[in-house]
Amino acid sequence: MIRYERNMSALSKKENEKLKDFSVVVIGCGGLGGYTVEMLARLGIGHITVVDGDSFSESNLNRQILSNNQNLGKNKAVEAKKRMEIVNELIEVVPVTKFIDEYNGTDILKGHDIVIDGLDNIDTRFLLQEKCEELKIPFVHGAIGGWYGQVTTIFPGDRTLDFIYRNRRKEGIEKRFGNPSFIPALVSSIQVSETIKVLIKRGEILRKKLLVIDLLYQDFKIINFQ
């Protein structure tokens, strides 16, 4: 199919065709999550559940790819679905217009092949880790703040967040350092590449490892938790 021909030969024809059979859930449709949904849809992931109880505000316009002057005040998950209908009508996007919590988390996540973190709240990330472990679903974590970002892929039982957030806080560094437009796009692209590698079972993933990115000084390093 011409739509996906530029995926080749990074993906084989068989791998590309298989993408339509996968089901991915993106938690949060803001900075990280918006770019993530966009890339998944363009790759051809067949089913994407998008979860966000928030609506777009003017402060989102500097970095959130799904936000624009016309959809301020509108729910992020619903707007993600609307955009993906324009981007790729061959896939299914299901919006969940609520925040994930301990009561609805299992129902939202179950039945998916992988979970992608687009959150800005550390407690909710720990909730995702717990729920993914219960449901035996891999989980791709990403976080951003200022010039900095991080990515890891967590399989059930790894509990990698326990190592990353030993001094547990309610919020990440993005509240203090802000987020310019370039950092969510970069970190999201790495999250998506991790997701694809997990789904097609090819390449090396960041399991029990944390990729730490410092764009200010072009420092990319991997912390190993083995």
Automatic annotation (TrEMBL):
Tree of life domain: Bacteria
Transmembrane segments: none
Any one GO molecular-function label of the UniProt entry: tRNA threonylcarbamoyladenosine dehydratase
InterPro entries per UniProt: ThiF/MoeB/HesA, ThiF_NAD_FAD-bd, Ubiquitin-activating_enz
GO biological process, one term: cyclic threonylcarbamoyladenosine biosynthetic process
CDD domains referenced in this protein's UniProt entry, alphabetically: ThiF_MoeB_HesA_family
All residue ranges annotated as the THIF-type NAD/FAD binding fold domain in the record: 4-224
Pfam family, one: ThiF
PANTHER family hit by this protein: TRNA THREONYLCARBAMOYLADENOSINE DEHYDRATASE
Protein name in UniProt: HesA/MoeB/ThiF family protein
Organism: Anaerosalibacter bizertensis
